[in-house]
Amino acid sequence: MADKREYRTEELAEAAGITVRTLRFYRERGLLAPPRREGRIAWYDDHHLARLRTVAALLERGHTLTGIAELAEAFDHGRDVADLLGVGTPTEEEPVRLTPEELAARFEGQVTPENLAAALDLGYLGTDGDEIVHISRRLLDVSTALVREGIPLADVLSAGARVRAHADALADLFADLVLRHAAEDDLPRLRPLARSVVEAELSLALDRRLGHGREGQEPLPQDQRS
């Protein structure tokens, strides 16, 4: 593994394509972590360079420096991905690694400090160095699709919290059922059965919900039917 590179102030500014004055301004605004110091010399590393490039990308997307500073604070206080996923914990979900600018591109204009904090609190997002890790590609793709359909990200996250509560209750129910009649080691093997039951019941519930929505509606005249 290559040694971690370090930069003096002037070297970091040049690598990031900004002036030393701008770098110091960003540092004063809390956009950069403090450098390592040897006497009067400040040493920065590749994490600082990655943050500066992220700041530039977010500025290009119309974020303000105040907003970026708030996002950076939420990002810096996010849980580490190892703590989020649990080391060695088996899962059927595929985590997705994103840079902050890639996340902003997926949810254009809606990656606010409030939404980022909500996603971190839900455990959807974790941090790994300068990257963000979403715990589930499926959840990320669905959230992206819902936002592109015009549903605000804040509402998607609020619904996610409610779904999480119901999902935890269903998981407890299935685990209790299995443990009453089988060994704990059987849980991973029987896990697909629980998922099939939930998917089938949700499908039937949506049928009932959509069916109720059509009740009482008069049929369209013949000339208005597609």
Describe it.
This protein is mainly alpha-helical and 226 residues long. Among the domains are: 1-60, Multidrug-efflux Transporter Regulator, Chain: A, Domain 2; 161-213, no CATH class. Helix content is 60%, strand content 9%. It has ten helices and six strands. The chain has helices at 9-16, 20-28, 46-60, 65-76, 81-85, 100-106, 113-122, 137-148, 153-181, 187-214; strands at 6-7, 36-38, 41-45, 96-98, 125-128, 131-134. The strands form two sheets. A three-stranded antiparallel beta sheet has the order 1-3-2. Strands 4-6-5 form a three-stranded antiparallel beta sheet. A hairpin with a 2-residue loop joins strand 5 (125-128) and strand 6. It starts with 5 loop residues before the first strand and ends in a 12-residue tail after the last helix. The mean pLDDT is 83.
| Name of the level-1 CATH class of the domain at 1-60 | Mainly Alpha
* Overall 3D form: elongated
| Count of DSSP strands | 6
CATH architecture of the domain at 1-60: Orthogonal Bundle
